[in-house]
Every structure is written in C-alpha cells, then in structure tokens.
Task: inverse folding
C-alpha cells in the first residue's frame, strides 16, 4: 500500500489548471473510473462554486468542459452520486440556506437538468451522505432546517430516490437506527449501506459503524475489533470490495487527522495503517473516489481544509496493493488467538513460538512460551538461496545494499550495516542448501500449537 502525490498538469487544448483550492466538494468517476468529475465546494477566495472540472486519470490532466443547461446554485457539503453516465447532485448549503434541490449532470452531453421530483422529499440539509444500490440513491442524516423550527436539526432519517421515476420515498426501517449525525460517510457493499462516524450534535464525535440491509431494511450496529477507529467527522471513506478505507477528518479545530484505517466489513476488524511516505497532510472535508476498474485497487484524493481553515488543492492516488495479503495474515492471527482462548477455557496447554528475523544474513531468534510463560530463547540460522523481494524503504539506493533492523538479546534495536556481497559469511549463506522461507509481514511469524495436557 502506498500514497502517490500527483503533479498537476494543464490540458493542451484548455487553460484549466484544475479546480483550485477548495473543500466540501465532491468527486465522482465515469467511463470505468478514468474520468473524475469534481463539482462545487468552498474556494480560496471565500466563495462557493458550481464549476465542473474533469481529471483524466490516464493522461493526468485537468479540463473544464463547456456545460449546457441551468447549473445548480453554488454550494458545498452536498452529495453527488454516479448513476451510469449521470451525476445526481442533492442538497448542501449556499452559505445562507440549506438546500434540498435535485440536479442531474449528463456527462455524455455535458448538460445540466433540474428535475421535478415526486413523492416525499427530504428536508433541506447539508453534510449528509448518499450512496447507490441498484438504481436507487439512499440519503442518510445530515443537518439542516425543518419547517416550524428555528434551530439547526441533526437528522437520522433515510430517504430513497428512484432514479428512473425520480420519486422520493422516506424509508421505514427496523432495528436500532444510528444516532442523528452529520459529517459521516455512507458506502455500499453487497446491497448493504454502511454508515461510519460523524458528529452527533455539537462536539460529540462518533466512530461507530452501522449497516442497513436494503433487502430487509433492518439496521444493525457492526461489532468491531482490533485497532478501533478514533471518533471523527469530515473524513473520507472509499469502498474497495469488502474493505472500507477511512482517511482524515477532525475531532476539534486543533485535532485534524491524516491517519488511514481499513475496515474489513466481513469480519468487523479495523486496522490502522502504519505511517507511509508521501501521505497527505491532516485535513477534513476532502473528497475521494475509487478509480476501478480503470485503475483497479486505487483511489483518487483531492483537496480539503487544514487546521487554519485554508482550502487545499493537492492531489493523491492511494494504491491498495498488498492489503489482501495483510488481511489474510491478520485473519490467521485472529483465528490463532481464538484457538488459544478456547484452549485456555478448556484447560488445555498452549504452546507458542515467536520467530523474529535478527539480521539480513538469515539469523532468527525463537522465543517459546507455554501458557504465556517463557521457557527458552535462542538464535538459529534459516538459510534461503532465494532472497524475498524488498520494498523501496528497505534499500539504500546509493549503496544498493539491504539495510534492516537487528535486535540484540536484550531486545534493543539498532541499524544494521549494509551487507557486503563479497563477505565470506554472506557467500557461505548464499551457497548453502535450498531451504526457502517466506518473509512474513514486519519480519515476524507466529506459530501456535494447541495440545492437550
């Protein structure tokens, strides 16, 4: 997994240098993920915008197409949902009023349409979320105004728009609905919608996860484990298969995040991804979208607002390579822990061996325990003629030699020197037998054996 900073370029036939600095905008893809449409937002000059810019992920250039029809009024904190070649824009705020109008941009003809809707419309709102299941757009939560009340209201209602008949319907659900909130996210997975985090009234931030089954319209809260998400609002969430990638957001004006979490929806397991090079600075109200299938396993990330309330215009890709291997290892570790727990409850003896790489020459330390008590620790040499591939972070490109961290017997760490291929010890290792091992994630393997007393 890695971040990639994208350098802005200008289209050869266009003077557009991109949307400029903004937050509260939306990003959507069409044509299989190649073209990213950026709409709306609040810009650097203190103005709301209704401009449309297009990023070509193949050529990595911006353009600002000529758009026909009557556009929506300038706004931010709206929702924009892709349905085929059409982008459905709903709600938001123009700085003075909350909105609940519905507009559609036909990206094949670059024409705006303001649609007359039927049914029971949602109240005007901003900072809500929307996601597509089949031909229906599900809109959840947000904050806004309701007739007869002067104060701002937080919502936890759910509305459904039939995009073929352009009819709104307020959903009747069972189960425990999520708290009213805004600044959350909503994603689709296997005909289910997944709500993550947000702000529940002023200053009460959330990290809970709720799932609505759109076949039964039953809500349930997902029980999560491992490395739980810290409470936040204003984050982005991108769904790639059963994984939800959550980045950024805030808990208060001085606590903005630039961390990255991944939720496996199937298991309810959160993982916090360790700090990576080139990750975006902390921010909230950015926008992101999956680029699949054009760039399968990658998403596009643009803009946002920093802690000084300054809008941003930087662009990043995030590539999810390796997440599935890491998930597989994590699932095995969880299964192992469950087996240990079950064995302890049944009065069985638990034997565990912790194997840790000590040096680039192939030395490993093995610490064995029974029922959590250390019984022995020693070093051994595991030989492999075929060295595993290295990440860029493992290499000193100047010397073209591997560097690793080594641990002494007291457990302290130090930087090991480069390996000299001419060194006799290195030659001896390379020329020995053909026993091959797979270097585990973070150079650590765990083996557990459950045995009866």
Result:
């Amino acid at each position: 997994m890695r971040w990639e900073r994208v350098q802005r370029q200008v289209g050869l036939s266009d003077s557009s240098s991109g949307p400029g600095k903004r937050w509260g905008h939306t990003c959507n893809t069409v044509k299989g993920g190649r073209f990213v449409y950026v709409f709306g937002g609040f810009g650097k000059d203190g103005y709301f915008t209704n401009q449309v810019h297009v990023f070509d992920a193949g050529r990595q250039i911006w353009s600002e197409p000529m758009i026909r029809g009557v556009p929506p009024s300038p706004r931010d904190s709206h929702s924009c949902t892709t349905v085929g070649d059409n982008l459905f824009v709903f709600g938001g705020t123009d700085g003075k009023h909350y909105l609940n109008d519905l507009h559609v941009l036909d990206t094949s003809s670059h024409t705006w349409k303001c649609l007359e809707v039927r049914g029971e419309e949602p109240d005007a709102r901003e900072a809500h979320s929307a996601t597509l299941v089949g031909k229906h757009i599900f809109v959840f939560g947000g904050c806004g105004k309701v007739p007869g009340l002067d104060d701002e209201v937080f919502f936890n209602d759910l509305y459904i728009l039939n995009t073929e008949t352009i009819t709104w319907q307020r959903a009747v659900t069972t189960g425990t609905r999520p708290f009213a909130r805004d600044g959350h996210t909503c994603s689709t997975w296997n005909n289910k919608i997944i709500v993550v985090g947000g702000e529940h009234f002023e200053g009460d931030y959330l990290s809970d996860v709720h799932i609505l089954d759109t076949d039964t319209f039953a809500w349930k809260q997902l029980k999560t484990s491992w490395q739980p998400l810290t409470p936040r609002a204003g984050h982005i969430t991108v769904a790639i298969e059963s994984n939800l990638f959550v980045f950024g957001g805030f808990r208060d004006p001085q606590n903005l995040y630039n961390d990255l979490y991944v939720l496996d929806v199937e298991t309810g397991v959160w993982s916090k991804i360790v700090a990576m090079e080139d990750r975006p600075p902390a921010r909230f109200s950015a926008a992101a979208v999956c680029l699949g299938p054009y760039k399968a396993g990658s998403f596009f990330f643009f803009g946002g607002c920093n802690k000084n309330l300054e809008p941003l215009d930087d662009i990043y890709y995030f590539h999810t390579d390796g997440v599935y291997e890491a998930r597989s290892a994590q699932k095995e570790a969880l299964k192992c822990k469950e087996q240990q727990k079950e064995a302890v409850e049944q009065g069985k003896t638990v034997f565990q061996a912790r194997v840790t790489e000590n040096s680039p020459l192939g030395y490993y330390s093995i610490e064995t325990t029974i029922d959590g008590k250390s019984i022995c620790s020693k070093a051994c040499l595991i030989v492999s003629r075929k060295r595993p591939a290295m990440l860029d972070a493992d290499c000193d490109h100047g010397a073209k030699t591997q560097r690793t961290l080594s641990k002494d017997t007291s457990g302290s760490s130090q930087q090991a020197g480069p390996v000299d291929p001419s060194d006799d010890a290195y030659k001896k290792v390379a020329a020995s037998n053909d026993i091959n091992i797979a270097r585990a994630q973070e150079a650590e393997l765990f083996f557990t054996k459950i045995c009866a007393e």
Remarks:
- The helical segments are 323-345, 424-430.
